[in-house]
């Protein structure tokens, strides 16, 4: 390959021939994507984007989950290359999906369009549930990354469903008994297996292309977890779309359509109500008592 010149344009056909330093240079010079916000994704070219994965996160958790999801028919961008950076960070270069996020579309989306998209997501969620494991956490690292667990001592990597359940139950009945009332009525029973969960199905992470096909992006929190954790990742759309919290007919209709969307995609909320109640308590207590060391835990 010819000597690299910093003023040469990026060529998609040379992606596999560029050195890591060259790819990193081109990514650094590329503009960030803009939807309803400025994203952390760089538009490397018309067909490629690059996402930065900071150390100490394991980039293989994301790429392996994406590959598993693609293998069962979920519309996921194809990973084209992974670049290692000197600081321990990584860049994931992947297929660029042209379209609009559901966050952009939601104010103007009609009822029947909402239903059609929800049925697509339902098929994806069902397909992901066919990818099972006797372990918990990231597909590669086994580490648990979830907004519902805030303590510095998380579940041990690759915890079995039983060990992960014990970890959650510890926060319900054994965490700071002098300060926290035991909640034995919420104790969970471990599932036979965990399923592949995206865990962040926020409207910004779902893209509708020009052909009406739904794509799921940003698999950074994905891994093997109880099935109810997929539903939890779809709650609270007002955080992503503040206009839904307003007292207006448009906001009310937007909330109604999102509730219908979740119902079709993940089933009745009552099916996940106990899991949600447990996660709410675990989040509150692990956030308040971050230094606690629950059973089957390790400091990440």
TrEMBL record:
Residue ranges constituting the Aminoglycoside phosphotransferase domain according to the UniProt record: 187-230
Top-level taxon of the source organism: Eukaryota
Molecular function terms from GO: protein kinase activity
One of the Pfam families matching this protein, by short name: APH
Alphabetized InterPro entries for the sequence: AGP_Transferase, Aminoglycoside_PTrfase, Kinase-like_dom_sf, Tyr_kinase_AS
PANTHER family: AMINOGLYCOSIDE PHOSPHOTRANSFERASE DOMAIN-CONTAINING PROTEIN, AMINOGLYCOSIDE PHOSPHOTRANSFERASE-RELATED-RELATED
Protein name stated in the entry: Aminoglycoside phosphotransferase domain-containing protein
């Amino acid at each position: 390959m010819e000597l690299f010149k910093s003023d040469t344009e990026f060529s998609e056909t040379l992606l596999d021939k560029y050195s890591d330093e060259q790819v990193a240079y081109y990514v650094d010079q590329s503009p960030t994507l803009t939807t309803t916000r400025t994203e952390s994704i760089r538009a490397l070219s018309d067909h490629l984007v690059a996402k930065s994965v900071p150390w100490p996160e394991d980039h293989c958790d994301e790429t392996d989950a994406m590959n598993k999801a693609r293998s069962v028919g979920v519309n996921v961008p194809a990973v084209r290359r992974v670049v290692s950076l000197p600081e321990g960070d990584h860049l994931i270069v992947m297929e660029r999906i042209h379209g609009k996020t559901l966050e952009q579309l939601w104010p103007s989306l009609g009822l029947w369009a909402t239903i059609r998209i929800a049925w697509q997501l339902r098929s994806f969620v069902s397909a992901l549930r066919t990818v099972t494991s006797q372990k918990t956490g990231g597909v590669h690292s086994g580490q648990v990354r979830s907004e519902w667990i805030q303590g510095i001592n998380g579940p041990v990597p690759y915890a079995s469903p039983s060990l992960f359940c014990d970890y959650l139950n510890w926060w319900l009945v054994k965490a700071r008994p002098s300060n926290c009332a035991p909640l034995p009525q919420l104790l969970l029973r471990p599932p036979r297996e965990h399923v592949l969960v995206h865990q962040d199905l926020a409207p910004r992470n779902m893209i509708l292309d020009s052909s009406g096909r739904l794509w799921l992006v940003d698999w950074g929190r994905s891994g093997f977890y109880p099935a109810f954790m997929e539903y939890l990742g779809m709650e609270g759309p007002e955080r992503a779309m503040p206009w839904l919290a307003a007292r207006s007919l448009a906001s009310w209709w937007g909330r109604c359509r999102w509730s219908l969307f979740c119902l079709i995609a993940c089933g009745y909320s009552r099916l996940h109500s106990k899991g949600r109640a447990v996660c709410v308590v675990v989040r509150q207590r692990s956030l308040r008592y971050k230094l606690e060391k629950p059973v089957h835990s390790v400091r990440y």
